[in-house]
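This is your field. Have a critical look at both lines of this record:
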Amino acid sequence: MRVLITGGSGFVGQRLCQQLLAQGHEVQVVSRTPHQVRDRLPKACDIRDSAQAFMDTPPEVLINLAGESIAAKRWSDSQKETLIRSRVDSTQQLITLCEQLEANGQALPSVMISGSAMGYYGDQGDKVVDETTSPNDEFAHRLCAQWEAAAKPIEAMGVRLAILRIGLVLEAGGGTLQKMLPPFKLGLGGRFGSGKQFMPWIHRDDLVAAIMFLMNESTLSGAFNGSAPHPVTNAEFTKTLAKQLHRPAVFPVPAFVLKAGFGEMSQLLLTGADMRPARLIEAGFTFQYPTLDKALEAIL
């Protein structure tokens, strides 16, 4: 199948492109700067600067992963708008592509898998969270809700829509561990605040497998939690990571320090949700790395 990906040059997208090509699919990637991302992607990828540029070779599957890093900068009003726009605009590009294909009498994609994040639920304390849990209204939730809403119009065109609310992605060379590993390797790691906040996580290979599972299972639609079945608290994550590195983790970062340094964005570090992938498990998806110790052992 022809699979069009937004965010294909990112940490998850790169591995997804590799796996799709290995299974014989054609991969189309949207990037505003095709010449800059060419070296990060397999040569077989067809990279163009907009979704509309693929009108001549209409995709059969849409995978929407684009969006500026939520933790790149402090959340000023302008940065919040940038975070929202980066997600909504890329999603709207795909909707517009489908509208144009429909207007031309061309075949529409069969499915769109659209990214979202664990932030959809906001701070849930120690409550077990599945796809039916009501969100806590805060910026992370509003960001994800607008992102998800931007994808909904595609359903009216008869395209199956699966939304994947993604946890912290773990693998070497990027993602969550990229910033955490240096201090932990020096024995300077520690919990954030009380350490009681939950950290839903997923190994990158399991996330890519989940995306392809949703792509291939034609009966699955709606929201799915993209995280491992055994989330951990920040304290447990800290302890497990330090153990894998054979280092102590005795330098906790007080909540007031994080709030002073990051402002409202500190919520990402100090709050969380005990998010479980109930619908993926119910659908028969199997995780290669269900527990954190197994995932970190494979990575490190």
User: Anything to note?
Assistant: The mean pLDDT is 97. The radius of gyration is 19 Å. The first helix runs from residue 11 to 22. Residues 183 and 189 are 5 Å apart (CA to CA).
